[in-house]
Amino acid sequence: MNGASSGDVRVAPRNQDQPQTAKLFKRTLITVVVGVATYVLTNVLNQDKNQVWQLTVSVVLGGAALIIQYLVEFEGRLEAMEEGQKKRIREMRDRLGGHHAEMLAVVDDRFAKINDATELFSQVDRSVLRSDGVTRLARKYTQVGEQGSEIVKTFAQEEIARLASLMESLSNGSADCPGENHEWLIDLTTCAKRTIYATSTDVDRDFWSSEPAKRYLAAQGEAIKKRQVEVRRLFLVEESRDLTGSLERLCETQRRFGIDARIAVRSLLEPSAQMTPLNDFIIFDGELCYETEPDVRVVPAKTTLKMKREHVEERINRFGVLWEASGPADPDPGPEPTTTSD
User: Fold this and answer.
1) DSSP 8-state code for residue 329
2) Has this prediction a pTM greater than 0.70?
3) d(CA 180, CA 200)
4) Where does the sequence pass through the membrane (predicted)?
5) Is residue 331 within 8 Å of residue 263, measured between CB atoms?
6) Nearest to 283 by CA among 199, 170, 217, 181
7) Is 62 within 8 Å of 38 (Cβ atoms)?
8) How far apart are CA 78 and CA 81, in angstroms?
9) Which DSSP helix (H) or strand (E) runs through 292?
10) Between the N and C ends of the chain, which has fewer C-beta atoms within 10 Å?
């Protein structure tokens, strides 16, 4: 195989040299023909038989013929070179034009993104919200994209998408999520500055024995002590038989945190209050309503945040009616007096 390859390599130059050899032979033949023809012509015309003059003229004309052939070939090569240069220039111009168009598109796209980012951060700066959190989020998200593993990047993208969806929903006046969102509940309690009005039905009774409930109560206690937030909670039951010892102990526990807790028996309320629907909702600062919706198993299946003014005012009025109808909590009874016999 190596021999065959070497043979092919040696044959190729001979094939390439054949046109050059043919051209050289053609030039030589033309030169000889011109020289011989000149010699014969001068021999016929020159009666003096001057051999030197005849040979000189023959050589000069033969050389001139050879030079003319080279000049013609040179001109052909020069024209071919010019055409090649023109073709390359056209191709280069086309490539540069295409590259220029691509660069313009890339630059326009980059400037558009820069303009979008600039406009976004300008809106953030003009907003009443703190802008440092947005800047920090963007910077850390970029670092995760550069350094994190694939699963971390995917998780970060999902969290950003979830946060963006929440912000979009909040801007529209309502947000929701499946199940009961305890993090929303605790975060809103941490953010409250004035009031927290809450109702609690048998749907969320099991919640109060969970770990999130402990954090929720701690957040309420901190809001009461540090920010003087007024916290009211109304436990709602249908009948007197639903008043259990565990519910009364739960109510007393919440009072120890500074919460104004009451128990309302619907069947014992005034008729106007009995007509009020009973469901779980929490009103934060009179501006946002946190609600849970039960499923067929009477467990929270959906959490909703609603900020529309008419809805929040309706919940405030409903809570006010139930709160006024329930009356203040009974003070702890003192020890019964003991009688002594004389």
Assistant:
1) P
2) no
3) 14
4) 24-45, 51-72
5) no
6) 199
7) yes
8) 5
9) strand 288-294
10) C
